[in-house]
Specification:
By secondary structure, the chain is mainly α. It has 2 domains: 58 residues, Arc Repressor Mutant, subunit A, CATH 1.10.10; 153 residues, Tetracycline Repressor, domain 2, CATH 1.10.357. The protein is 72% helix and 0% strand. Helix 1 crosses helix 2, helix 8 runs antiparallel to helix 9 and helix 9 packs antiparallel against helix 10. The longest helix is centred in the first third of the chain and has 33 residues. It is globular. 27% of the residues are buried. The C terminus is likely disordered.
């Protein structure tokens, strides 16, 4: 009986995932074809071949559906944070590629970004990413500085500045048709951000190879976070 219930739940989960995927793909194709602002919920329903009640069971509106495109990225970030915390106990190197993954994600969805660039929908996504990245960083940064003397620049200002710089660089990269690979952009950002980190946090930091497991947290949070092999 318990096994039957589990199988039913698993089947239901697959159905939900499939429905959400259909609506997501419908929205992405419509954005490229006609632009986000002119799309209606009915357009999405017709393209995905789902009912209105089904749509509203999952999303409040098309904005929430659009932002759900970043769930994969957010899940990845949170998983990497957990691996980082676990590494302090196990001594095993985590794979922390936050900035690199952000460039890879936007590169993979560049048609979407091009279609919404400079529009209200594009501003909405940038605000969402800014708020999410700021909240992801402000906690660890504040916790770190509790154990040290007050930095020359308040933590929240430094965090806001760095996140804004990251998203500005990301926008430049897309506007210029991605002239460098994500790995190079990851390295460029860390080179540019290092002097700010050193001045604002009052500490030296090390630039590791692009995409290395230490690259993100050595830059933003704590150079001793990730155990050496």
């Amino acid at each position: 009986m318990q096994k039957r219930g589990f199988m039913k739940e698993k089947k239901e989960d697959r159905r939900i995932s499939r429905t959400r995927k259909l609506m997501h793909e419908a929205l992405m194709s419509l954005i490229v074809e006609k632009g986000y602002e002119s799309i209606t919920v009915q357009d999405i329903l017709d393209r995905a071949d789902v009912g209105r009640s089904t749509f509203y069971l999952h999303y409040r509106d098309k904005d929430e559906l659009l932002l759900s495109s970043f769930e994969h990225l957010r899940t990845l970030f949170e998983q990497q944070q957990q691996e980082l915390v676990a590494s302090r106990r196990t001594g095993k190197d985590p794979e922390v590629y936050f900035i690199l993954e952000l460039f890879r994600h936007t590169g993979q969805h560049h048609k979407l970004y091009k279609a919404i660039a400079g529009r209200q929908s594009g501003e909405m996504i940038l605000k969402y990413l800014h708020r999410y990245l700021f909240n992801m960083l402000i906690g660890p940064n504040t916790e770190l500085m509790k154990k040290r003397k007050a930095p020359p620049v308040p933590i929240e200002i430094t965090t806001h500045y760095l996140v804004s710089a990251l998203l500005s660089l990301l926008t430049w990269w897309l506007d210029n048709n991605m002239p460098y690979p994500p790995e190079k952009m990851d390295e460029i950002f860390r080179i540019l951000a290092t002097p700010t980190i050193e001045a604002a946090f009052g500490r030296k930091t090390t630039i590791h190879p692009a995409g290395s497991q230490k690259a993100f947290y050595d830059l933003f949070v704590d150079g001793d976070c990730c155990p050496d092999k």
